[in-house]
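Exercise 7. Predict the joint structure of the components listed below.
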Amino acid sequence: MKIVRGRADARWLPSRFNFALFRLYAFLRMKNAKPEPADVSLMIDRNQNPIESAVLSTWTTATLACYAAETLFASWPLPLGLLAGVPIAITCLEIPLIAVGVPLWRRANNIPLNSVVLMSLLTAAAIYFVRAESWVRFAAWQFLIAVALNGIAAAIVFLLRGAIEEMENGVGGITSEL
Amino acid sequence: MTWLRRFRPRGVFWRQFLRWAVVNVPYWCEAVILGFWTMLFMLWGPGRRGVMANLSAILPGSWPVANLFRVYRVMWNFAWTIDDNVRFKELGVVPDWEFVGRENFDRMRNEPGGVIILTAHMGSYDLGAQLFAQMSKRPIVMVRAPEIDPQTRQFEEERHVAPESLKIDFSTRSNELALDLLHALQRGEIIAIQGDRVTPGISVLPATLFGRKTSIPAGPFALSMAARVPIYPLFIVRLGRRSYRTIVGAPFDVQRTRDRSAGFEQAVAQWTRELEHVVRDAWFQWYSFHAFEEKQSAEKDAA
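Solution:
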């Protein structure tokens, strides 16, 4: 694992982000960031950023809560239905993890597989709900638009890979066995 | 029933379940899943009541209803901490670190003789010790309470992958351990001990914490006096997801005078000042699930 020491601004290195949209944003932030000397050790790992993790957690749960409110609690007042949809949404996120993770419990790391399965199911659910006539189609649309934007960002990040690598080498850092 | 033991709060099922979750839950949805499962911790009555009692001492005048929500915050931080610890062991994922008191840290690393690190049940002390052992040139002995449940103990021992320079010893075998630790200090090793919680069967010293009478382990202070080595207060505070701060305080000695108790009293007062200062700012991650004031009354009852 690579570690950057003494530079707090390295928190914006694109390699510390997972999804292309966030990587692109990080690239722009880092490009305009001034060096911030600080007594820190920052790990270069693609899942290190807390904001990305929080935004994606909230976004996927909120989208699923919309689907749950529309299908299970349609007769309830909308705010109450959305609230009741949150635990249902979290349970729905966990079902595929159990379906994949329990049979494959001996494997050392199921995270990449579960990530692909979960994102595919969320996209399939969005394609299903986008055909609805009620308000829930907007929730499904925003999900599909975000997925499409991430695809475009992935293409841009791919084209910028040379500049990103140059930026990351410029910050320095050490490779550690940690 | 023996089979049901595994589902008790300290049973092995929860360790296995945590390990399974760490290698299965994608990073981008872990926050909500962890937040959801943290609610289960709230069902642990003794732990919840212990934190509530401690919060009423740390935050005088706080409302019990508000403290109930604060307990959730403590449990939430605890869940992240044990998650980070298992993630490091299973997947080699290391969090970000920042240092406060680097000058004390460097001084500690360059001490010619042994050193005692006095720490508290805050942040990820397990993870901190592992990383510190990899950075340090000297061996570290971490003293901790053993797992009560035999299955849990076996599970943890099987999965224990510490660097060679880190040795873990248990506070229960207090008599032989004291001699072993004394020899380790004389060899110039570093001893890390938690000084905020008393386990049954160990020697204690009276202390005042947040204006309330309590007891703290006597071991680190007696060792410091016997081996003539300094005590460095060190705290690991969780700042956020995969982010920790190491706070290293100025060292202090246990003075050798004719009046031993005066020397201990002075050192204990120094330690509790440091502990109070850190816990007051980071009460949401002091993982002391027993009311610290209760210990004193329990001892009086026993006497």
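Discussion. Chain A touches chain B through 40 residues (CB under 8 Å).
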